[in-house]
Amino acid sequence: MTEAVTGPQIASSVQLGLKENWPQFALLVLINAFVGGMVGIERTVVPLIGSEEFRISSTTLVVSFIVSFGVVKACANLISGHLADAWGRKRVLILGWLVGLPVPLMIMWAPSWGWVIAANALLGINQGLAWSMTVIMKIDLVGPKSRGLAVGLNEFAGYLAVGVTAFLTGYLASKYGLRPAPIYLGVAYAILGTVLSILLVRDTREHVRLETAAHARQASPISFREIFVLTSFGDRNLFAASQAGLVNNLNDGMSWGIFPLFFASFGLPVDRIGILKAVYPATWGILQIATGPLSDRWGRKGLIVAGMWVQAASLFLSAATSHFEWWLVGSLLLGLGTAMVYPSLIAAVSDASHPSWRARSLSVYRFWRDLGYAIGALSAGIIADLFGMAWAIGAIGALTFVSGAIVFVAMEVRPGART
C-alpha cells in the first residue's frame, strides 16, 4: 500500500492528544506503577539483606547489586528505542515484563549475594525495556503540545509506586523479617504488569506516523551512530540534558545503596528507614504531576537548574546531620529537586529530537541517565569505604551542584522552543 493511501487512513483513524487517547494513557500509567513497584521492593530491604543476612562488611560490595542493575538497564535503554521502531512498542513492553517475572523469586530465595546481583541484572532489562516503552508510548499518544504532562504523569505513577512499595517493604520487614514477606509484592506486580500488557495495551506507532506527517521532513535518514553522537555531545541541549540525567541518577544510585546503611549505622530501625526511603520517591512522584505541565508552560531549563541545586542542598543536609527529623527534611528536598528535573529532562530531549528518531534519541539519553546508577553506587561505595558514608553523600552532592551549573551554561532557550 502506498504512502499516499496510508496517510489519510492514519489521519482519520488515529488522533493525538490526552483527551482523545485517555483509556490507553490511563492503562499505561497503571502499568508503569507496577514497573516502579518492581524497583520499590529493593529500596529499603535489599541493602540490609546484604549487610545483615549475608554479613557483607564492604559497602562497595553491598551496593554491587545496583551496579549490575544500572549497567544492564543503561544498555537495555540504549537498544529499546531501536527495538521499539523495529518491532513495535507493545512487543518490547511485553518482553520487558517476561524478563522481569523471575526477579522477585530470585531475591526471595537467593542462597548467595551473587543471586541478588543476577536478579538485578534481569531487573535492569525489565526496567530498561518496560519503563522506556511506557514513557515513549505516552509521548506518542499526546503529541507535541503536552509532552511535559505526559512524562510527569508517567513518572508520577512509577515513582509514587517506588515510594509506597519502599514504605510497605520496610513495614513488612519490621514485622516478618527481610525475606521473603516484603518481596511478595514484587510477585504481584510482575504478574499484573505482564497480563495487562499482553491483553489490553495497543501499539502507538501509527500515532508517530501521524505526527511525522505533520512535521518538517527529515532532510536525509539519520543513523543510530549519528543519533548517539548528537544526543551525547553533538547538540548542546541534548548534551546538557544527558549529563544532568546521568548525575541525577548518580545521586539516586547513591541514595538507594548508601542511605539505608547510613541511617542504620545510627541505630535507626528498619521501619523508620522505610519511611525515609519512601518519602523521597513518593515526593518525587507526586510533584511531577505539577512539574511536568509547568515545564510545558515555563520552559525546561529553569526547572532543571533549580532542581539539581535543590538536590545538592538536600544531600549536604543529610550528610551533615544525625537526626531523623533532618533526614526527613532532606528526603523531602531530594524528592522536590528530582521532581523538578526528571520530566523536564525527558521533555527537553523530546523537544530537540525529530519524531522520526525521537525514540532512539530518548534511548540514548536514558542510557547515559541510568548509567548513573552504576557510577553513583560504585563511586559512593568506594568513597564510603575509604572516608565514611557522610563523605560519600557530600561528594555526590557537590557533583550534583556542578551538573546544575553545566545546564545553566550549556542549555539554550531558543525562540519558540520550550527548552
UniProtKB/TrEMBL annotation:
InterPro entries: MFS, MFS_dom, MFS_trans_sf, MFS_Transporters, Sugar_transporter_CS. One of its GO terms (molecular function) is transmembrane transporter activity. Residues 1-205, 237-419 form the Major facilitator superfamily (MFS) profile domain. It is a multi-pass membrane protein. Gene3D superfamilies: MFS general substrate transporter like domains (1.20.1250.20). It comes from the Bacteria. The keyword Cell membrane applies. The chain crosses the membrane at residues 25-41, 61-80, 92-110, 116-137, 149-171, 183-201, 302-320, 326-346, 367-384, 390-411. The keyword DNA damage does not apply. Keywords: Cell membrane, Membrane, Transmembrane, Transmembrane helix, Transport. One of its GO terms (cellular component) is plasma membrane. Its main location: membrane. It is found in: Cell membrane. PANTHER family: INTEGRAL MEMBRANE TRANSPORT PROTEIN, RESISTANCE PROTEIN MDTM, PUTATIVE-RELATED-RELATED. This is MFS transporter. It comes from Bradyrhizobium zhanjiangense. The lineage of its organism: Bacteria, Pseudomonadati, Pseudomonadota, Alphaproteobacteria, Hyphomicrobiales.
